[in-house]
Amino acid sequence: MLRCNEVTRLCASEEIDGAPLKTRLAVRLHLMMCEHCRRYVRELARIGEAVRSLAVSEPDDADRDEALLRRVLPDRTPPPS
Ligand SMILES: [Zn+2]
């Protein structure tokens, strides 16, 4: 069985897309059993969505950027205004 650090490394990189079927199945099995890695992969997806949103947002829209940061990092302390 893969270890958490192997699963997170594979999921954070593009290696998983080109990995052999055996590796992809092992990652899938690990994710079915490991809440920590599932949460990590969900957070990666949320960060990816936020980055894609930022890429198309207005460059000086600080309120929107702060709202995106709150979505990605809900526990983050906002900067003083
Ligand atoms: Zn894990």
Q: Helical element count?
A: 5
Approximately how much helix is present in the residues? Answer: over 70%
Structural category? mainly alpha
Largest sheet: none
What number is the mean pLDDT? 85
What characteristic shape results from the CA principal axes? elongated
Report the radius of gyration as a whole number of Å: 16 Å
Low-confidence stretches: none
- Spell out the helices and strands N to C: HHHHH
The first-to-last residue Cα distance is 48 Å
Bound molecules: zinc ion
Number of domains: 1
Strand content: under 5%
Give me the count of strands: 0
Description:
The chain is mainly α and 81 residues long. The chain has one domain (4-72). It has five helices and no strands. The longest helix is centred in the middle third of the chain and has 22 residues, at 35-56. It is elongated, with a radius of gyration of 16 Å. It binds zinc ion. Zinc ion (ZN) is lined by residues 4, 7, 30, 34, 36-37.
